[in-house]
Amino acid sequence: MNPSVLSIENLSVDYLVEPVVHAVRNVSFELRRGEVLGLAGESGCGKSTLAYGIVRLLKPPAMITSGRAVFHSRDGLEIDWNELHAEELRANRWEKISMVFQGAMNSLNPVISIRDQFEDVFATHRPKMSRKQRRDRCAELLERVGVDPGRLSSYPHELSGGMRQRVMIAMAMALEPPVMIMDEPTTALDVVVQREILREITRLRDELGFAVIFITHDLPLLLEISDRIAVMRGGEIVELGDAAELYTNPRHEYTKQLLASFPSLTGDRGSFVRGAMDDRLLALDAVEVEAPS
Ligand SMILES: Nc1ncnc2c1ncn2[C@@H]1O[C@H](COP(=O)(O)OP(=O)(O)O)[C@@H](O)[C@H]1O
Ligand SMILES: [Mg+2]
């Protein structure tokens, strides 16, 4: 079992509205180095609030009422995110934990070329990199997520939604953070593009060994890509376990209900095979995903 890279300890978040919404209630879990941890649960159960709470990106009326997130670096150092100042938080966000949120593709600056947006990240975080190193790295990153590096001089509006989302994922990987949090990163996309991006993420995880918290209400998809799955309901994690185990032997009544609500999952429980996605994805290779231009 890999050691923890991130510990979430008793995290609670309220929305201070009338009446108060207890969106995240006393959530604790460990993210292990290199694992894909799926976070499942119906819309409104608190997944996004938890994600934003971990990285301290919540805005009023949201308030963290208890708990903390502790990052464990390889050299044994602990970083308590609650104790970081705004400046340190910013520095650590892309370095230690990066995020891709739903609709992240719309957060690219429309008047700056893709290349310059990458360059900004490197100029800020890797000031010693030479111009040539930065250029090479940009191209390499784009290639990794399946975008032609020739697109570097493009502006965001010249790319499709799927391409822009891939660019955001490449950016989240730019500094090779040990943890990536992805909140419905592909939900807005066409299902074929979605699968292709997921394949890239899992492949890169295998290659680079970062840990991923992957959030979606799409439980079948989570079962395919996750090592472990946490099931959330009403602001709490009701069950957390090995993905295959959770599928074949759900403990909590709510997990059973959730599984039952996806018709595609209610077949023969014994036939679940991890990595089944790979075969299905291979079949998609022949599909033209983006119109060439
Ligand atoms: N800005 C807000 N003000 C008040 N309540 C909110 C706000 N944002 C989210 N909530 C509530 O917090 C709960 C959790 O929401 P959210 O974290 O977005 O869930 P999920 O991501 O699982 O769909 C929901 O009941 C939602 O209505
Ligand atoms: Mg959400």
TrEMBL record:
Record SUPFAM superfamilies: P-loop containing nucleoside triphosphate hydrolases
Pfam family for this entry, one: ABC_tran
Membrane topology: Peripheral membrane protein
Domain named ABC transporter: residues: 6-259
Key words, A-Z: ATP-binding, Cell inner membrane, Cell membrane, Membrane, Nucleotide-binding, Translocase, Transport
PROSITE patterns: ABC_TRANSPORTER_1, ABC_TRANSPORTER_2
GO biological process: peptide transport
Subcellular location, record wording: Cell membrane
Any Gene Ontology CC annotation: plasma membrane
MF terms (GO), sorted A to Z: ATP binding; ATP hydrolysis activity
Family named by the database record: Belongs to the ABC transporter superfamily.
Designated name of the protein: Peptide/nickel transport system ATP-binding protein
Source organism (scientific name): Actinoplanes regularis
Phylogenetic classification of the source organism: Bacteria, Bacillati, Actinomycetota, Actinomycetes, Micromonosporales
